[in-house]
Amino acid sequence: MSVPVRWISEDGLCVFDIVKRGTGPAERTSGYQIARAAWQLMNQCVRDSGGQGGVVSGIGQSGSLGVFIRKNNPVDVQCDEEPQTYGRDACARLLLSLPAAVQPRRVFGAYAARAAGERVDELIPTYYANEELYYDFNKLNLAPHPDPPYHQCRIGIWPMDEEEVMTIVDTATWFEVWQAATALVGMCARRGLSGNFLNFGTNRGLRITLDDNSDPILGNSPPGANVTVVHLPVDRQGKKNETIALAK
């Protein structure tokens, strides 16, 4: 199992995390140890203390794992009402592919901002999908496929205001992206819906999207915008396979 791992309630008010301290070798533990820690937290930190949450640390042979239960305030999650064709499992696999390890803040920005000399580490708008997701799309020249099995899960990073699609620059960590995407999967994909995590980033200028790929890959991007599609390997420990820049 790759960590961090997060489970979130359908209403978004409670999260359960398994995290690893440091960057040392892989840790070994049992499902029983994890379940016992969760049971302790539910009894002592949720039921007996009014739902405040808590942590059990020192889990595993080297003691580097921690189990957390905590309150959550999902005010920026907005699920759409139109049903999507993906299954929750497809979105869960995509979450495992995101580089969720805590890293320094990254600058997310538009092609035009980078061309103007601003620092941009990650180009947006961008869609993230597992590498197998677009294999048949490439053979079909990126045309949408009508069969439901091809309508799988994708995560996007877009500016809050689409008028800023050519100029947006904001910062976030990949761990924060993963947290937002996990909230969307747990609260929206679980019910077969798409959704948005609004006001994302240091300056609240970004939004994280979750939808299926039944629309063309370019989505509803404004004319002239460059949209990047990043193919992620299924294994989170691997590197990004390929980046394709598409202009609409």
What are its keywords?
disordered C terminus; single chain; alpha+beta; 248 residues; 4-stranded antiparallel beta sheet; 7-stranded mixed beta sheet
**Continuous helix count:** 5
What is the tally of beta strands? 14
Order of strands, main sheet, comes to: 5-11-12-9-8-13-14
Mean pLDDT across every amino acid position: 77
Beta-strand residue percentage: 25-35%
The SSE order reads EEHEEEHEHEEHEEHEEEE
Distance, first to last CA: 38 Å
Radius of gyration: 19 Å
Class inferred from helices and paired strands: alpha+beta
Helicity level, as a percent range?
10-25%
Largest sheet: 7 strands, mixed
Shape assignment = globular
pLDDT below 50 for ≥5 consecutive residues: which ranges?
132-150, 217-225, 234-248
Q: Your description of this structure?
A:
The chain starts with a strand and ends with a strand. The protein has helices at 31-47, 88-97, 111-115, 135-139, 174-187, and strands spanning 5-8, 14-20, 53-59, 65-71, 77-83, 106-109, 122-123, 126-130, 153-159, 169-172, 193-200, 206-212, 226-232, 242-247. A hairpin with a 5-residue loop joins strand 1 and strand 2 (14-20). Helix 2 (88-97) packs antiparallel against helix 5. It contains five helices and 14 strands. By secondary structure, the protein is α+β, with helices and mostly antiparallel strands.
